[in-house]
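Changelog entry: the Aminotransferase record was regenerated in this release. Current contents:
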Amino acid sequence: MSISLKMQSFAEKSSLIRKMFEEGIRMKALHGAENVFDFSIGNPDIPPPPQFYEVMQKRANDRSPGVHAYMPNSGYPFVRQAIAARMSEEQQVTVDADDMLMTCGAAGGINVAMKSILNPGEEVILLLPYFVDYQFYVDNHGGIPVLVNTDEDFNLDLAAIEAAITAKTKAIIINSPNNPTGQVYSQESLKALGNLLLKAGKKFGTTIYLVSDEPYRKIIFDGLTVPSIFAAYVNSIIVSSYSKDLSLPGERIGYLAVHPEITDKKPLLTAMIMANRILGFINAPALMQRVVAELQQASVDNSIYERRREIFCKILRDAGYTFNPPKGAFYIFVKTPIPDDVEFCAILQEEKILAVPGKGFGAPGYFRLAFCVPESVISGSAKGFARAMGKVKD
Ligand code: PLP
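Regenerated structure tokens:
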């Protein structure tokens, strides 16, 4: 075959989520969409907030010269200024417009970060269970993913991270609120992680970057807030997007910001801007940059996700499943009542319930449910979850 062997193997590795997604399409055609309970994909179903449509309309009518032209590869300065001002409040560290660049989503931002810092063979620590595409992003730029477990509640396991750091460690990627677990790391644990990375950097004479992937920052429950990364560690890079909190994943709009005192700041930002260009993005979409600049305080109605979480957790608890209720994001990561998660997802499928096996996130023995679906789909699945549990109980 003429296709890259590596890409063939990657396509194979990422096939679990893809398989469920395709199964969903097949089953909906067969049984009717209303009879299939599809929790496989993290595609937000809540519409963007009303302000989005107002700003879009205004911006779409703008016929000033150059509105659709190329721009600096880092994005419009006024857009970066608006985001930097909001981030300064949120991070409690003053972020300048020149400390950041606009990217094609968080995925684009992580690729830009990896391309800018990695030499071939350098290692990037990824925490299990993980958003599986991280391993591909690391590999894209010649890095080696090093997989490290979190603790039994999916919190940071500092001892395990410390044990995994070597002279080749260039970065660690964290994600909080987390996909797939819904965990949110505490301020104390982030501070402890920052201290650990500083200490390890000193020991090896290296700089270890902390890349914080935060597209779910605003999707958070029980009045919690996501702690500041910049307050926790100087060599940190925040990557985020409007895919989840404004429900705009198809628009590919996000950003990346470096700590104002990050090591090698100037060459790092120069590399990042260059990476944004030569990865083929050139710049983030112009219209969406102009739109999100005016929506810094806007967000989808979080209470809708919070209500769904309540309903879903009750259904699962009543049926006898074990899980930690998510503190943020829109996923529940549930223990499978039998060891084989792929087999249990097949049993759920007999009940027309689509879930993704934990194996797809590097964590066998669990399954992930995405609750970015209408409430009726969640409540409609209750009997199926109970029956599936009944099938495997002694
Ligand atoms: N990081 C995590 C943890 C995600 O779950 C996703 C998408 O689901 C992404 C990054 C990619 O987000 P974006 O659409 O902003 O590129």
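The pocket of pyridoxal-5'-phosphate is lined by residues 42, 105-107, 131, 175, 179, 213, 215, 241, 243, 249, 254 (CB under 6 Å).
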